[in-house]
Amino acid sequence: MAEEDLKLFDQCRICIVCSNDLPLETAEQLAALIEEYGGEPSIHQSSPEKEDTIECTHIIASNTHFHTYDLARKTLIPVVKPSWIHTSLAKLKVANPRQHSPDPRLFLSDVVVTCGDIPEGDKDAIVGGVVAKGGLYSPRMTGMVTHLVDLTTDSDKARLVLTKKLRVKIVLPHWFDDCLKLGQRIDERPYTLPDPEIMRAGFDVPVRSHENKGLAGASTPEPSTMPTPSRVTGDKTSVFSGKSIMLSSDLAIGSHMLESIEAVLKHGGATVTSNVEDADWLICRFREGVVYRTASRLDKTVGNLAWLYHLMTFNTYTRPLSRLLHYPISRIPIPGFEGLKISLSNYVGEARIYLENLIAAAGAECTKTLKQENTHLITAHGNSEKCSAAREWGLQVVNHLWLEDSYAAWKLQPVSNPRYSHFPLRTNLGDVAGQKMLDRDVLEQHFFPAEAVQERQIAQRGASSRGQNKKSMDQPEEKPREESGTMAETSHGTPQVKAKRSRRTSETKQIQTPARSRLVPEDKENETPSSTNSRKSKEAAAARLHEIAPDIALYEKETKRVGGVIYGGRRKSDEDRVAVNPKKRRSIEPQEESCDGEQATDTKRQKKSRPPISMHLLITGYQKWVGKGNERKEDADKRHLRELGIMVVQDARRCTHLAAPTILRTAKFVNALAYAPVIMHTDFVDECLKQNELLEPKDFPLVDKAAESKYHISLASALQNAKNNQNKLLRGLRVFCIEDIRGGFEAFKSIVEANGGECLLFRGRLALSHNSRREESDDEDEEMQSDEPGRSEVYLLSGPEQKHARLWPRFRQLAGDIKRSPRIVRVDWLLDMAMSQKLRAADEYELNESLIEATED
């Protein structure tokens, strides 16, 4: 065993990077241990050079702030924390580097979890999540355990922790769930047993925030004042020692401040240069210009003035990419951010300043107050007046992770990602703001692509050799025999169609071809570029396109069904599921819609057994499918109907036919009326299933004189009106709805929107807007809409309950503020209009306080 201990780190060349968390004394102790057990250590007080990084087998660092971290990651050199050495010695074998990584993406790398009395399924999920994010699992309570996940303190493990006062945190499973949903580690204190805050604090109790020390000196890209340099000048070793630094002319700082900065740099042992090729670091303001692109392509360290001031303040090297606002900003907004108006809520101190500056750097506008013209609200938790108002107005409510991810990827991220709308109950997300890092690959792609210089040089060379290119372009068939053979093999799967080209077209392509060639050897720059590579690329692309054509066709098919492609897979019993025949993957014809997902072994047999869809049928009030235990019958009947060419749908927008036993006031029936479908009795469904054939819908008309008399409508007239209205019955009308109204807000919202109106939730907290978004977007119909009734009124759907009546005075006040007439009406007003497809006056449906009193008596 002693012999093995001596060779524990045999053949390991380990670089130790010093920092504030890993001082020189600790590094020397680690180096002595490594050398004692057969390793070869080297200590670096700043970032190791490229040669040292490539030659080593491991890098020990407390963070990822050293300059060559990206190089180590790309070359698969493990970067580990000092705990890796101690764990390896304790186990007498080299530990897994992943569990000791300082990579912030592995945010649970310090966690060793064990489980108490929790369900087995929850245990498997927690253990899998912890291990995936860098942590470890221990089945027993050992000295390595840092967290015990339990529901109470009554388990044996929890009593052991409390009795022996072990340094183990007993947390609820909710903590792991919230960490994994956010993709970041949050504070355990609100989840810690025996008295977790998330279980006892009320919803309206303010969520406290803590100081975010990680944003110190990193909250603005353009600091206004220079830090006091005493901390730097007093140290024997400066972070600037031996560095050559270039200060770009786009910094826009005065001569006096420039002299002060240069004095501090020179006093710290740096030299100031004006040649970017001689510089180690470039300090600039914007991601543009020849100097910026040259330094970036030469892999120089590029940062902004805020980063330089941060180094002066703390005298510790950090990578500019480790903080979003330590890297130069762009004058051009992120695609999709221009025109966005974003407000902040519940962020305080440095976190708020940081997000305000990040919004500006992204190219959007940050507003101090929240208005209806805002597009987004970024909030640190979900319970505030601003959050309630934003949801009422239909704004996007997200956390700061959406903004940080968009900035780092330089692409507008979809707000539908659950990560951006998750708000832990008793956590202020401002505590974890500023942990996102930039990706050099993304920056290279958008701001300093390496091939840009080569393409420009090749284009210049191609212009001088245009005459030689003409021969090779006009006679592409004259090639060496080896090349023609290769071409024949490449194009075997994709036949080429030869076509005659005019001389003008040929000459145009002659001019463009040299610019398309990317790689021309330096010693052959005067030779005519061959078109073989270009043709090979085209044919390879064509072959690849032919290969993935079935997937493209399937994706386009999926985008047409309800829900799109973002909600995961479908069950075989779902009527909108798309069937794919795996034995016909080469076909690029769109697959037919399928309600049961069965896969026929023969395409012709499948087409024969599944006729084209001739009817999209919406069914409501069908009692044979209602009740527990009828799910299988419903699925079987839907499959049977699909075999007859009838697709049963759930969305009124997709239906061409509607089947009901009587005239109903269900959401399906009322919504479908707006689209003027063919309406028949549900006997049509029974007979089609019974006779096993598609019958004529006109033979099963829906006749319900009693309902027509009750609702004062004519079904035939309503359908004709719907055809004339074209879903514009309520166009220009804005309808508000009380949240707990009978029938549900979502049902009435769908009815209003199906008829072209706008429906918003009303809680009585904040002001109403002057104009609806529909009015603002319909400029071409402005003159037509100005004469429509109801444009000067706003409506509130309410019930005759006392709790609803409390909101009426507030609604009247807010309507008066925007110079509109308030109309508080029963839901019958909306239903009668939707059923008859005619506008009706609100007078006979209006509610007032006298009706409330009569109801209560």
- How many strands, what sense, and barrel or not for the largest sheet? 4 strands, parallel
The global form is: elongated
**Mean pLDDT score, rounded?**
79
CATH class of the largest domain: Alpha Beta
The helical percent reads: 25-40%
Number of helices: 35
Rg over CA atoms, rounded to whole Å, is 35 Å
Query: What's the total count of β strands?
Result: 24
By CATH, the architecture of the largest domain is named 3-Layer(aba) Sandwich
Q: How would you write the strand order of the largest sheet?
A: 2-1-3-4
Q: What would you note in describing this structure?
A:
With 857 residues, the protein is of the alpha/beta class. A 4-stranded parallel beta sheet has the order 2-1-3-4. It has a 4-stranded parallel beta sheet with strand order 6-5-7-8, sandwiched between helices. It has a 4-stranded parallel beta sheet with strand order 10-9-11-12, sandwiched between helices. The radius of gyration is 35 Å and the shape is elongated. The model is unreliable at 1-5, 230-236, 452-533, 564-607 and 772-789 (pLDDT under 50). Residues 777-786 have a biased composition (Acidic residues). Residues 211-234, 455-542, 573-613, 772-793 are annotated as: Disordered.
Topology diagram in text:
Elements: H1 2-6, E1 13-17, H2 24-36, E2 40-44, H3 50-55, E3 58-60, H4 69-74, E4 79-80, H5 83-91, E5 112-115, H6 120-132, E6 136-137, E7 147-149, H7 156-164, E8 169-171, H8 173-182, H9 197-200, H10 230-233, E9 244-247, H11 255-267, E10 271-273, E11 281-283, H12 290-297, E12 301-303, H13 305-314, E13 341-345, H14 349-362, E14 365-367, E15 376-379, H15 385-392, E16 396-398, H16 400-409, H17 440-447, H18 451-464, H19 466-474, H20 481-490, H21 503-516, H22 532-559, H23 603-609, E17 615-619, H24 631-643, E18 646-649, E19 657-660, H25 667-673, E20 678-681, H26 683-691, H27 705-711, H28 715-725, E21 734-738, H29 745-754, E22 758-762, H30 773-777, H31 782-785, E23 793-797, H32 802-805, H33 808-817, E24 821-825, H34 827-836, H35 849-856
Helix pairs in contact: 6-8, 14-16, 18-21, 19-21, 25-29
